[in-house]
């Protein structure tokens, strides 16, 4: 069988030799957001995210993007009780002994996004399909796929984490799948809450830190039709974000919520590779104005 994904990936590697990061990101930016960016004097949020990708080449960014290294990096800032319990880290798929794994777990690579696989019942888990998917992801470098420089030098590994029963809203019975805290200049400003209702429909709500729904949306996601009750963990989420976010500039701190606990997920510095659709479009520039130190 011909692996078209492999050939597409190889073509992207070759493209980096002929198309600069700036030219590539500019073209993608215009196609997705509809305006010509100014990366030398950025004003909008997406311009500043992309300028960071082009001009800020800190080794710290690579450590933060590495799902294994970031645990060690932030262990001095927050208690390890806020980490999703780790089953193990592996260099290759065949090191994993599935008989020794818990019945529920999450399998993911350390160097990319999109590789995660959730197992809710080990007896029905397709190990053959998982092996093929993970081996494919281990061969690919996120830099060549999206030109996000900080992924380039991550050493690929496999992580297996314990499965977390996610928070269910007592009002709507919807599940909060992810909580993303957008922080500017050392201050949490907005919470992006991804929601899935009982029929499996996905939504996303943007709140301020007082849990007031905001008049803008991201990535064309609709607000949930039913209002969400303020989680009892909100204050702790904000306090943890203050401890983890950058003192200057922008950073996004992501969490998973269970019914009675908070778990750190990741620190994101370049959301959607600088092509996050923000509506109304004026909010792209309003958010950019909060990133004062760029």
Topology:
Elements: H1 4-15, H2 21-33, H3 45-55, H4 59-65, H5 69-74, E1 86-90, E2 105-109, E3 117-119, H6 127-138, H7 142-146, E4 158-162, E5 175-184, E6 187-196, E7 202-208, E8 217-218, H8 234-244, E9 250-257, E10 262-268, E11 278-279, H9 282-290
Antiparallel strand pairs: 1-4, 2-3, 2-4, 5-6, 5-9, 6-7, 8-11, 9-10
Number of strands: 11
| Strand composition percent | 15-25%
Q: What is the percent of helical residues?
A: 25-40%
Q: Would you tell me the structural class of the helices and strands?
A: alpha+beta
3D shape: globular
pLDDT averaged residue by residue: 95
Arrangement of strands in the largest sheet: 7-6-5-9-10
Q: Could you characterize what this model shows?
A:
Helix content is 29%, strand content 22%. Helix 3 packs across helix 9. It is built from nine helices and eleven strands. The model has no long low-confidence stretch (mean pLDDT 95). A hairpin with a 4-residue loop joins strand 9 and strand 10. The protein has two domains: 159 residues, no CATH class; 116 residues, D-amino Acid Aminotransferase, Chain A, domain 1. With 294 residues, the protein is of the alpha+beta class. The longest helix is centred in the N-terminal third of the chain and has 13 residues. The protein has a five-stranded antiparallel β-sheet with strand order 7-6-5-9-10. A four-stranded antiparallel β-sheet has the order 1-4-2-3, with helices on one face.
């Amino acid at each position: 069988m011909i692996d078209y994904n492999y050939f597409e990936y190889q073509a992207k590697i070759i493209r980096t030799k002929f198309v600069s990061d700036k030219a590539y990101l500019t073209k993608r930016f215009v196609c997705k957001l509809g305006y010509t960016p100014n990366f030398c004097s950025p004003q909008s949020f997406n311009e500043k995210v992309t300028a960071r990708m082009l001009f800020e080449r800190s080794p710290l960014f690579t450590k933060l993007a590495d799902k294994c290294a970031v645990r060690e990096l932030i262990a001095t800032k927050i208690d390890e009780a806020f980490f999703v319990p780790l089953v193990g880290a592996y260099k290759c798929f065949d090191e994993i002994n599935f008989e020794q794994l818990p019945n529920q777990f999450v399998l993911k690579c350390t160097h990319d996004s999109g590789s995660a696989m959730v197992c809710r019942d080990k007896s029905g888990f397709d190990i053959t399909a998982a092996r093929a998917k993970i081996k494919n992801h281990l061969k690919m470098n996120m830099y060549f796929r999206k030109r996000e420089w900080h992924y380039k030098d991550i050493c690929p590994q496999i992580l297996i984490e314990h499965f977390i029963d996610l928070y269910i809203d007592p009002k709507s019975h919807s599940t909060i799948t992810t909580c993303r805290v957008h922080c500017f200049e050392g201050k949490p400003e907005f919470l992006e809450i991804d929601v899935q209702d009982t029929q499996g429909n996905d939504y996303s709500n943007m709140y301020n830190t007082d849990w007031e729904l905001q008049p803008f949306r991201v990535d064309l996601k609709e607000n949930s039709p039913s209002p969400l009750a303020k989680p009892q963990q909100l204050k702790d989420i904000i306090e943890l974000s203050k401890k983890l976010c950058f003192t200057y500039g922008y950073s996004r701190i992501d969490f998973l919520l269970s019914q009675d606990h908070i778990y750190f997920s990741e620190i994101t510095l370049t959301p959607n590779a600088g092509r996050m659709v923000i509506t109304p479009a004026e909010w792209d520039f309003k958010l950019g104005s909060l990133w004062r130190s760029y």
